[in-house]
Amino acid sequence: MAIQHVSLREANQRFSKYIEMASHGTEIIVTKRGRPVSRIAPIKVGGRMSEAEKAALERSRARMRQGYSLGGESFDREAAHAR
């Protein structure tokens, strides 16, 4: 991935140009008074999950289906709203 440094003023004046460059894979480092302050970078859209990510997602979904005990009594809607 190519990296280009530009001043804040330059980035501000030609923002669309740098967004277009990022969409084609260039990472833009924005500087203020010569110091890096921000980055405009391409993102991965529609990327595939690794096997580790798939396994983590399935573990999370299984745990959500199981539910979490909050240690309190169970109650129903009517009991919760009884006055």
Strand order of the largest sheet: 1-2-3
Unreliable spans are none
The gross shape turns out to be: elongated
How much is the average pLDDT?
A: 89
- End-to-end separation in angstroms reads 64 Å
Strand content: 15-25%
Care to count the β-strands? Answer: 3
How would you describe the overall organization of this protein?
The chain has four helices and three strands. It has 83 residues and is an alpha+beta fold. A three-stranded mixed β-sheet has the order 1-2-3. Strand 2 and strand 3 form a beta hairpin. The longest helix is centred in the last third of the chain and has 16 residues. The chain starts with a strand and ends with a helix.
Give a brief description.
The chain is of the alpha+beta class and 83 residues long. It has helices at 8-13, 15-23, 51-66, 77-81; strands at residues 3-7, 27-32, 35-40.
